[in-house]
Amino acid sequence: MGKMFQKTMIIKVNHQARKVEDLVALDTKMELIVNGEKLGKFYLSPDYLEDFTLGYLLDERYIESHDDVDDMKFGPESIQVLLKKYDNIRKDDLACYDGWFHRDQIVNPVKSELRVESEKILQAYDHLIEKAEVWSKTGGTHVAALVDETHFIVREDVSRHVAVDKVIGAGLKESLDFSVCFLVCSGRIPPDRVVKLANVGIPIMVTKAAPTVEGLKIGEIAGITLVGFLRNGRFNIYTHPHRIMI
Predict the structure, then answer these.
(1) What's phi and psi for 8, nearest 5 deg?
(2) What is the CATH number of the domain that holds 77?
(3) What one-character DSSP code corresponds to residue 176?
(4) pLDDT in tens, the chain (246 residues)
(5) In terms of domains, do 33 and 98 share one?
């Protein structure tokens, strides 16, 4: 991973104005092209692009495994992917939640026996913040981690959606069993993020932020435990509380 921020001069105001040097998170625009079709343009952090590509294709149901991908090529402004099987998706098959486009999908219930102690959830969020290197320097990224008994995989991105895509892609490369993982992340719990978890079978999502009504609906349908407002040793459980051991 290269440097994900750059220096810039700003004016800091605190009763008085003064010029200071600050660090700002890097972002770039990448177009995702699959089997010659343009799927969309994404503003993201320019690192872990393979993880993003695999994660996005998996959690939007374009692929079922790493083996479905024949080739990936990364250019300065585009990612070109060749899949073994690909269904041509028209524009009107896309839905938009919170400014994020993805396919309208039937949400299937997650199958998992995972249960997690509340203390482990609190520890995981603390560890997440410790690992958020770019955020600690810039305040300009979201961060997401996949956690199981032996892994704590972290990815950051300027986009909260892409942070989830990247960590799911990293989990795919590590051959993780998503049904025994939980996701801890920054950012709200809108429906589009919950759908991504449902599509790969992650049963628990934890964040410091709040859910939306539609996010809760998807979580209820998908059987996903949604945990939010985590702070100062406390949190709220919004759906399927049986997975959290108090």
Answers:
(1) -150, 155
(2) 3.10.20.10
(3) -
(4) 567 888 999 999 999 999 999 999 999 999 999 999 998 899 999 999 999 999 999 999 999 999 999 999 999 999 999 999 887 654 544 444 343 455 556 788 999 999 999 999 999 999 999 999 999 898 889 999 999 999 999 999 999 999 999 999 999 999 999 999 999 999 999 999 999 999 999 999 999 999 999 999 999 999 999 999 999 999 999 999 999 999
(5) yes
Distance (Å, rounded) from C-alpha 140 to C-alpha 201?
A: 29
Whether 195 and 107 have beta carbons less than 8 Å apart is answered as yes
DSSP letters for 144-172: EEEE-SS-EEEEEESSHHHHHHHHHHHHH
Q: Is residue 134 in some structural domain?
A: yes
Residues 137 and 224 in one domain: yes
Among 82, 103, 124, give the residue marking a domain's end: 103
Closest CA to 7 of 23, 20, 26, 29: 23
Active site positions, annotated = 96
